[in-house]
Amino acid sequence: MVHLIAYFGGSFDPVHQGHLATAKFLVDYFQLDKLVFLPAYLSPLKSQSLAAHHRVAMLKLAINGEHSFAIDEQEILQPSKSYTINTLKNLRQVYGSTQPLAFVMGMDSFLSLPKWHLWQELTHYSHIIVVNRPSYSPVFSSELQQWLNKHRCNQRQMLEYQAAGLVYFVDSPLYAISSTNIRKALQQGQAINQQLIPAVANYIFHHHLYGATATNES
């Protein structure tokens, strides 16, 4: 049986301890040989992100020494907004028609899925793993619910028995960390080191990213 390969999409602006903990949880839960971080150049639903080279540099520092992790820079290297459907088409061409692939997203992103470009075709090319917050009960739009009814799977083993087409929900441990709150804290001079991998925190302060100053370096 061919093992599942998962791609973890996001802005990672900046990557934080919650991202890393979630990724490690997914590797263990799905017994993944590889989880690939897929940073977006700019999400079509966002107006701006930190420069791509800084976000990639921080990701590389964050996953250093983690042999199950890798980075795919195909989205972040293109000078335009990232459409997940195009990325998944590219990955399917690379891996062929039989390799099980999954795209990982959070529940908040999943709820906004009907705003995504050609969203109903995403499962033509990969599975979707939706990471939910424990005890959170999402409310789906009727359009999303109807689509979900056709694709939802409750047996994780099925993600390895076919190459694409399924949506699987998993409750991850709760990590009360968000990139948005980290950026705000840095701008306000608050301490954030416990929320970041030390090498990433050092990089942010060294380059004075997000308004970071010496006041919140410790």
Q: Summarize this, please?
A:
With 218 residues, the protein is of the alpha/beta class.
Could you explain how this protein is built, in words?
It is globular, with a radius of gyration of 17 Å. The protein has a single domain (5-177), classed as 3-Layer(aba) Sandwich (Rossmann fold), CATH 3.40.50. With 218 residues, it is α/β, with parallel strands linked by helices. It is built from eight helices and six strands. The N and C termini lie far apart (48 Å). Helix 2 (52-63) links the parallel strand 2 and strand 3. 33% of the residues are buried. The protein has a six-stranded parallel beta sheet with strand order 3-2-1-4-5-6. It has helices spanning 17-30, 52-63, 84-95, 107-111, 142-151, 158-161, 179-187, 198-207; strands at 5-10, 34-39, 69-71, 101-106, 127-132, 167-171.
How many structural domains? Answer: 1
Instruction: Kindly report the name of the CATH homologous superfamily.
Output: HUPs
Helix content: 25-40%
Reading side by side through the largest sheet, how are the strands ordered? 3-2-1-4-5-6
| Shape field | globular
CATH fold topology: Rossmann fold
CATH architecture: 3-Layer(aba) Sandwich
Our count of helices gives 8
Q: Give Rg in angstroms.
A: 17 Å
Low-confidence stretches: none
Strand content: 5-15%
In angstroms, what separates the terminal alpha carbons? 48 Å
CATH class (first level) name: Alpha Beta
How many strands, which pairing sense, and closed or not: the largest β-sheet? 6 strands, parallel
Would you tell me the overall average pLDDT? Answer: 89
